[in-house]
Amino acid sequence: MLNVAKFGGTSVANFAAMQNCAKIVKNNLNTKVVVVSASAGVTNLLVDIAHTPLTSEQIHSKVAEIAVIQQAILHALDKPQEVNDKLAELMDSLTTLATHEELLHRPDLKDALISHGERLSSLLFSAVLKEFGVNASNYDVRKVLKTDSEFGQAAPQLNDIRQAAQRLMLPELSHTVLVTQGFIGADEAGNTTTLGRGGSDFTAALLAEALDAATCEIWTDVIGVYTTDPRITSAAQPLPELSFEEAAEMATFGAKVLHPATMEPALRQNIKVFVGSSREPEKGGTWIVRDCQHEPAYRAITRRKDQVMVTVKTPKMMFAQGFLQKVFTIIAKHKLSVDLVTTSEIAVSFTLDNPPNSVLQRLNRETLDELREFCSVLVEENFDLVTVVGNNMQSAAGVSSKIFSAVSDYNLRMICYGANPHNMSFLVRGSDSTDVVKVLHKALFE
Ligand code: ADP
Ligand code: ASP
Ligand code: MG
Questions:
Q1: Neighbours of ion ligand 3 (CB under 5 A)
Q2: Which residues make Cβ contacts (< 8 Å) with residue 387, sequence separation at least 6?
């Protein structure tokens, strides 16, 4: 009945938050693997150091901010001396890498640098757990979490992960709770990699899969998955249960509470996933399971920001066989996924996820340059993708009319409906998306 518990950035932000997490671990004897994110704010600071040109004073001031966050936790421990040296070592290697990266701009150095957030927080949380009487040890996930070498957005190598986890981690679990890092991994050559922002949820699900766990808990700052992001509207309601498909759809289409790939391992191995608040565990949370009691037509609304709409045109498109294939071959080569597509005789429009400073943004730029070699390309920015997630949406009577009449005051640039029973998506202006989500939420859930 093995359980993997993951604690997000706000859950390990400081000593008091870590104490809440320690109680949760201690109360469930099935929890043998604990995955932690970096303390809140630390990854953002590391990403800043890695991705913006900075003077050495600026680097040192950002490193100092990280040190303040971590030292505050260290000094709240009863016996700080037990982890003091290791913490100092990590802070030293962080500082060295920050300086090297600034000179060399190598993607492997960026990932090695950014990985320090999780390495620091896991060291500190294992010490907190020990003070709670849990026999815990800090475990380097890079021994197990093997990935390819796509720095910044590395893909897990599932067979290697399973083999290493079974061989190296499983025997430890009979006598200790392993506290390990989310979000980071290592490629074949042993270089440190990262899985993309928010990737600790994915790590937890991957380890749960590799260790044949029964459950995977995602402890965060909300009491479950809501009908929409509670930061968009206070009318959002927590959901007691969700199906794997619904949760996967929500995560893919922007519900930040779960990294987009989290549900893949859970689905493959039928692992029940729980989402709850580490501050208020007594409030329960959402269980994500294979078979739900109810399959409502509407379950939730999500939003994904920073979408670009690309329109490619060629005068020769009429009767031009193979044009679409050429376009999508380039997109596939860059491992980009397209969400919405419309075609006409002379043009094809599609949307791409384009979060600033991301690997995707860089790939999108390269993709567009390649497309421009054989067709005209129009890029329009500042769109958000709003998605209604539900069940049998393509066949239930009245679904589309209810949704369309709710948003009739807004300009919908593209619509996707009918291809997938679990969603209906549309592209709206970024400045409209909050209102669109609110009116839809009112029409469908209030
Ligand atoms: P963590 O650091 O624990 O991984 P995240 O910030 O990544 O936490 O995810 C939790 C946040 O996800 C919440 O604070 C909430 O604002 C946001 N969120 C977006 N959509 C949803 C949703 N449908 N239900 C719950 N939270 C959501
Ligand atoms: N610390 C990483 C991030 O902020 C991973 C995570 O929190 O899941 O993106
Ligand atoms: Mg997260």
A1: 8, 198
A2: 249, 253, 254, 301, 302, 303, 304, 423, 424, 425
